[in-house]
Predict the structure.
Amino acid sequence: MHDQGAVFRRTGTEWTRIPQSLIVDEAPRYIKKSFEQLLAIEFLVATVLAIQSLGQLEDVVRGFVETVLTNTRNKIIFGGLSEAVAKRFEREFSVGANK
C-alpha cells in the first residue's frame, strides 16, 4: 500500500506529526505483516478496518486478530455473529470479575 509507505516516511515524532486517517474497506485484501506497524501509536494514524469476520484477519496474518483487538479503542460489531465470536466479544467488552 502506497499510503502505508508514505506514513512510514513522514518526519517527526509521535508528538510532532500531523495525525492522519486511513479507512480500509475489505481490509483483509490489503493487510500484510508490515500493516501491524502502521497501527502503532507513534505514527498517529486513525485506522478504520472493515471486515466481515475475525477469521478473515487470522487467515491473512497469524496473530493479527490479537493485534487489532488489543490496539483498538473503538469496536463496532453488527449482528449475525457465530456463538463463539459473540462469546469472544462478550469477554472483550466485560470489565472486572466478569472477564
